[in-house]
Design brief:
The structure is a single chain. The chain folds into two domains: 201 residues, NAD(P)-binding Rossmann-like Domain (Rossmann fold, 3-Layer(aba) Sandwich), CATH 3.40.50.720; 136 residues, Rossmann fold (3-Layer(aba) Sandwich), CATH 3.40.50. It is of the alpha/beta class. The chain has 14 helices and 13 strands. It is elongated and about 75 Å long. Helix 4 runs parallel beside helix 5, helix 7 packs across helix 9 and helix 7 crosses helix 10. Helix content is 38%, strand content 13%.
């Protein structure tokens, strides 16, 4: 059995993809069994060999006491017998699922999988993708058959970047398998590292569906908050005051408005609506939520632009400061950050924009979005947008914003962390 072979270190686990999902999994398993951490990025592998996480999520201490080798050499994968796929699953510019990373991983697996091996996908996909899209590629290239020669499973990732409370090991893990034996073996393997235990899903499709609706539900709840914030703004009511009052009831769900980016909440619903359309159903509720959330950057930049035009004679000389560029607080990841939409929308009107962020990498921002970070905070800003509530920003007060802005400046506080603290400048929050 694969579990026994892994425990005895007669077999190895290979984790394909060493990003914010794959690396924590690889390091957790490497405290128990032998692991190969594989990634196609040579630059990333070189950093990992030095105990440095490019994503800044895992500290150097997490690499200590682990039985792991990091590699970008495909040949090394042939030593493994239990493969975990943790590659990105983005959407393209038309919000259509981009399966190239998982298909590429499937092609790779087809070249290295052997009889008796196990393959488990963790990448977020639509129900049926593992068996209908990935499996045929693996079988075609390897010449092997699932069930007869190798077994499969699906165990959706539940990593929450920046969250030190809900971690990999203390969060229940969903597992599934291609048959009853595969399910039990996959469950036993993950139980080695998941202290909270595992949930055995009825099928791989069920596990895929469970993952994609987790983020779809959250997306819809945030969309409702965003729509309410637009309504309350027109009614001249502070949204956070309303939410605070409503939150006193026991069954009120405490979601907040904001920019919805990243590679989960803003992406996963499109996987579900894509599959729904494929089987003849056009989603209305899910896509309505996506419409609201995708348009919040436009709503924000128009609010700021209107204020700048109203209080400044020369708009082109009216600088705006944007605080935060990552997709969420206290992380370094800038992929699919909706802050970039706000910045580029303002720049389209020739408004000078300075962007600061204590966690983001300026070169990565330049590569992804065409702008980098300002070297220092300036003076006389016509508006300041607190886009991401990094912990470093939570101690600022009215005096600080007064010192860097014009008298009629707008402080646009997307997360409401300065609510009740700004008196010398115009204030707005979602």
């Amino acid at each position: 059995m694969i579990y026994d072979s892994l425990v005895k270190k007669e077999a190895k686990i290979a984790v394909i993809g060493q990003g914010y999902v794959g690396l924590p999994i690889a390091l957790a398993f490497a405290k128990k069994v032998s692991v190969i951490g594989f990634d196609i990025s040579k630059k990333k592998i070189e950093l990992l060999k030095q105990g440095i996480d490019p994503g800044k999520e895992m500290g150097k201490e997490e690499f200590e006491g682990t039985d792991i080798i990091f590699s970008d050499n495909e040949e090394d994968l042939k030593q493994a017998n239990f493969f975990i796929v943790a590659v990105p699953t983005p959407v393209d510019e038309h919000n259509v699922p981009d399966l190239r990373p998982v298909i590429g991983a499937s092609e790779l697996l087809g070249r290295v999988v052997k009889k008796g091996d196990y393959i488990v996908f963790e990448s977020t996909v639509y129900p049926g993708c593992t068996e209908e899209d990935c499996l045929p590629v693996i079988e075609r290239i390897s010449g092997l058959k699932m069930g007869t020669d190798f077994k499969m499973g699906y165990s959706p990732e539940r990593i929450n970047p920046g969250d030190k409370q809900h971690t990999l090991t203390n969060t229940i893990k969903i597992v599934s398998g291609s048959d009853a034996e595969a399910l039990e073996q996959v469950a036993k393997v993950y139980e080695m590292i998941i202290e909270a235990g595992v949930h055995r899903a009825a099928s791989m499709k069920v596990a895929e569906a469970a993952k994609v609706i987790e983020n779809t539900q959250r997306d819809l709840n945030i969309a409702l908050m965003n729509e309410l914030s637009i309504i309350f703004d027109r009614l001249n009511i502070n949204t956070y005051d309303v939410l605070e009052a409503a939150g006193t009831k026991w069954n009120f769900l405490k979601f907040q408005p904001g920019l919805v980016g990243g590679h989960c909440i803003g992406v996963d619903p499109y996987y579900l609506t894509y599959k729904a359309a494929e089987v003849g159903f056009n989603s209305r509720v899910i896509l309505a939520g996506r419409y609201i959330n995708d348009n919040m950057p436009n709503y924000l930049h128009k609010k700021v632009l209107q204020h700048v035009i109203k209080f400044n004679d020369n708009v082109k000389d009216s600088r705006v400061l944007v605080m935060g560029a990552t997709f969420k607080e206290d992380v370094a990841d800038v992929r699919n950050s909706k802050v970039a939409n706000v910045v580029n929308n303002l720049k389209a009107y020739n408004i000078p924009v300075d962007v600061i962020d204590p966690h983001a990498d300026s070169e990565e921002l330049e590569h992804e979005y065409g702008f980098g970070l300002a070297k220092e905070v300036g003076k006389d800003y016509a508006a300041v947008i607190l886009a991401v509530s990094h912990r470093e920003y939570k101690e600022y007060d009215d005096a600080y914003f007064k010192s860097i802005t014009k008298p009629d400046a707008l402080i646009a506080d997307l997360k409401g962390i300065y609510r009740g603290k700004i008196s010398s400048r115009h204030y707005f929050c979602f």
